[in-house]
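Subject: mismatched residue count in predicted assembly?

I count 568 residues in my input, but I want to confirm that the predicted structure covers every chain. Input:
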Amino acid sequence: MNTKYMNPYLAGFLLGLVLLATIFITGRGLGASGAIKSIVVATVDGVASKHAEDSHFYGAYVGPGKDNPMKSWLVFEIVGVLIGGFISGLASDRMRFVTEKGSRIQPKLRWLFAAIGGALFGIGAQFARGCTSGAALSGMAVLSTAGFITMVAIFGTGYAVAYFARRLWI
Amino acid sequence: MGPFVPELISDQLNLVVALVLGIAFGAVLEQAGFSSSRRLAGVFYGYDFTVLRVFFTATITAMSGVLLLGYFGLLDTEAIFVNPTWLVPAIVGGIVMGIGFVLGGYCPGTSVCAAAIGKIDAMFFIGGGILGVFAFGELFSLYGSFYDSTSLGSIKVFDSLGLSQGLFAFLLIAIAVGAFAVTTLIEKRVNRISAPSLEFKSWKHVAAGSGIFALGILFIILPDRKTHLINKVSDPKYVASHSVAVMDADELAFRIVDREPNIRIIDLRSPDLFASHSLPGAENIAVRDLFGKDWVPTFSRRHVKKVLVGNDEAQERTAYLLLQELGYENLAVLQGGSDTFDKTILSAGPFIPTGSRWDGDVKAFREKAREDILKLIAENKNKGAKEPKKAKKVQGGC
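Triage response: the counts match. Full output below for your records.
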């Protein structure tokens, strides 16, 4: 970590303003897992469109009269996140290929657990209708009950299981 | 009045807006240090509470902004997307994500941001996420009914807890300020140093903490704008001291018979009464719904006279003063309310002479108007009475 990160309160304030602007302009919140879902739905639809249309899950997003699932608000937003992160990384000189991990494990193990964590997030975000951004953060900003429940469940579980995963991080 | 989607911003333009907001989102996440999984995971081990600080500050900022914009009438809080609650799936999903967070070290948004600056573990996380959603989709029939269970709609957390909105906002702010203080102490102990992320001098911390605390107290004091305005215009003293433009039944009847294009009849009665009988071309709007941005086009045309028709004149006067508070002009209340109009014009009751020399003309006019208006009402019914307009909701969610 060569360059210092922003003061967390200032960063939080700015993040809050970005979210507020999103709600004020578009009437909806920010998100992330929805874009991953769009990628999956579009891929399944591209490879086996009959299968996608028949499915209860994919069927809601594909079929006659529906836009391409990639033409969704969250896909464009997440492309923006990629660009924004890239610009910020360049500006603060943090661009490098590295694997972040605790000192006691090998990169390969870290990659495996990162992928498992990602998969769990992908599954959990479907049940909760959103992830930390779309369900918890955006939901809490508009005082949705689901937002608070999801936030408490994510962080509560995180603390409950952290002990068992400590080798990964400390 | 926000939000600007879908009226001012088209679906196409909204995608450009998404890209721009996404860039800002990604840049802030990266600057906050959310592109580092060790930092993110630190919140669970007490060595780095960045996540908690950023997350809580952002939540409070956005929530306060939504409340304040709503209070000043700049944002139609009824029109924004409120994430609906599926109670048990939300808990189960949160638990699964919590495990994923500790094992993976990212959440989906931060993983994209981290992958953008070359974090290899973040790329594996995204790949895992895609496989996870795919697995979920393929096995959907196993838990499809669970997925749709315990659906409670777009409920608000303060209602669920039985608190007022203002009190809940205050409590959330108080919890956040408390958490900021406590986690700073934990961080100092775990790292055995003064925490690296603390750059404010302590008096600044106290000032900032007191500042947002004051904001929280403000939320308790400020009633929400709707309640405030409705209370104001329902006060008999306020109503008595403000004059309103009155239109009598004969004038309204004349304008209807005349097919006057520049009047709009706003029916304030309940949807049931509206469905059973209503004046030709009338629109049914409840007093509480007058705030919504859906009705702005109806009320903001100045050359159109908006005639308010209610159960009685008092209800009409309340609505009149409310619309005036909201900045609308060219309004009128129907003298005596809907019943008076029915008695005077629509029912063939006996004519009560007033002793005026025009009595004969008035009587003749009312008979003619009755026939004509009843015909118009019947025609309207045959066309199928207009459904009461539903507020358009913005779509959202992941």
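Helices of chain A lie at 8-26, 33-47, 49-54, 73-91, 107-127, 132-141, 145-162, 166-169. Marking this ticket as 'not a bug'.
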